[in-house]
Design a protein that fits this description.
The chain is mainly alpha-helical. The protein has two domains: 107 residues, no CATH class; 111 residues, no CATH class. Helices cover 64% and strands 2% of the residues. It has seven helices and two strands. It has a two-stranded antiparallel ribbon with strand order 1-2. The longest helix is centred in the last third of the chain and has 28 residues. GO terms for molecular function: 3-oxo-5-alpha-steroid 4-dehydrogenase (NADP+) activity. It is a multi-pass membrane protein. This is 3-oxo-5alpha-steroid 4-dehydrogenase (NADP(+)).
Length: 253
């Protein structure tokens, strides 16, 4: 399969436009799942563990399938390292996070939309690394790769720890929402979202690519507003919620 620079640029631009459109759609109301689910949506739902597994799986499976079908991993340290870095995040989300989550059932249409996006993004990121990315031997010590990977793994650690904090808020079978405490939740309402934004921003820097940048921007546009809505939710529902916490760092709403 040959690299098409025109396709890479078009898809990157499409991801950015889709992210901006999603951002605007969430200006007034967050996506209808979890605590924001509409009553009609609750009748057509998927259990949380199955929902996360099914929607995240393509982002891991598609790049791996691309590498297998191309008769080996991408050549050179840079593409190999970055392709598996991308897959590492989705391995954790698919095979670890999905088994541990205690969330509410997800609307079926949200799961389908997420699975479609993950399939497209998994193919896009894998395709770019396999057939388009070019890194010379000096890239292994390039400051962009070093800083990018540090941010990626720092963000991943924040995301995993924040998810752990959220899981511990509920007893088995409990579905009520409580104020998260500990870790970065002491400073920001959406610490789990903040971690993922840091993670994909680091990936964009490490890859120094349009696909990486477009996905990082899409992440900011898609989960940034949800963090803001969570912040408002806590302020409205809990009188003792710390007013010093921010909606999202570094974005102060």
């Amino acid at each position: 399969m040959a690299c098409s620079e025109a396709a890479v640029q078009a898809l990157s631009g499409g991801f950015v436009l889709a992210g901006v459109a999603y951002l605007l759609a969430q200006t007034r109301q967050s996506s209808p799942y979890g605590r924001y689910a509409d009553p009609p949506e609750r009748a057509r739902t998927v259990p949380a563990r199955a929902a996360w597994f099914l929607q995240e799986l393509p982002s891991f499976l598609v790049p791996v399938a691309l590498m297998w079908s191309s008769r080996g991993p991408p050549s050179g340290l840079g593409p190999r390292l970055l392709a598996w870095t991308f897959c590492l995040h989705y391995f954790q989300r698919t095979f670890i996070y999905s088994l541990l989550t205690k969330g509410r059932p997800y609307p079926l249409r949200i799961v389908l939309y997420a699975a479609i996006f993950c399939s497209m993004n998994g193919f896009f990121q894998g395709y770019y690394m396999l057939y388009c990315a070019r890194y010379d031997e000096a890239w292994a010590s390039d400051i962009r790769l070093v800083i990018g990977l540090i941010l990626f793994f720092l963000g991943m650690a924040i995301n995993i720890h924040s998810d752990h904090v959220l899981r511990r808020l509920r007893e088995p079978g409990e579905v009520t929402y409580k104020i998260p405490k500990g870790g970065l939740f002491e400073y920001v309402s959406g610490a789990n979202f903040f971690g993922e934004i840091v993670e994909w921003s680091g990936y964009a820097i490490a890859t120094w690519s349009l696909p990486g940048l477009s996905f990082a921007l899409f992440t900011v546009c898609s989960i940034g507003p949800r963090a803001y809505h969570h912040h408002r939710y806590y302020l409205e529902k809990f009188e003792d919620y710390p007013r010093s916490r921010k909606a999202l760092v570094p974005f102060i709403f």
